[in-house]
C-alpha cells in the first residue's frame, strides 16, 4: 500500500473530508441516549484519517443489525456506510 502524501493541501483536504463524513454520520445515526452520536469523531492515523465511534461497543451492531438475547432481530440502521459513500461523491 502506498503512503499518503503529507503535503499540507492533501492533509487539509483529508481534514475536510473527515469532517464531512463525521457531520453526515451525526445526521444519520439513530439517537436513543445520544451516546453513540456524541462518540463520533475524526482521528488522525499517521497521514490518514479515521471517522467513527471509538468509545462505544455497539456502533457496528446498530449499523448491521443484531439479534437480541430473546432471539428477536433488530433491523440495521445504517449510518456509517452511507456517510462514507456520500463522501466519495
Give a written overview of the molecule.
With 89 residues, the protein is α+β, with helices and mostly antiparallel strands. It has one domain. Helices cover 46% and strands 18% of the residues. It has helices at residues 8-28, 35-39, 59-64, 80-88; strands at residues 40-45, 48-53, 66-67, 73-74. The protein has a two-stranded antiparallel ribbon. The longest helix has 21 residues, at 8-28.
Main sheet makeup:
2 strands, antiparallel
Q: What's the average pLDDT? A: 89
Number of helices in the DSSP assignment: 4
pLDDT < 50 runs, ≥5 residues: none
Which percent band covers the strand fraction? 15-25%
Kindly provide the radius of gyration, computed on alpha-carbon positions and rounded to a whole number of angstroms: 15 Å
Q: Can you give the helix content as a percent range?
A: 40-55%
| Order of neighbouring strands in the sheet with most strands | 1-2
Whole-number count of domains: 1
Class derived from helix and strand content: alpha+beta
Write the element-wise H/E pattern from the N-terminal end onward: HHEEHEEH
Number of strands: 4
- How far apart are the first and last residues' alpha carbons, in Å? 23 Å
What does the overall shape look like?
elongated
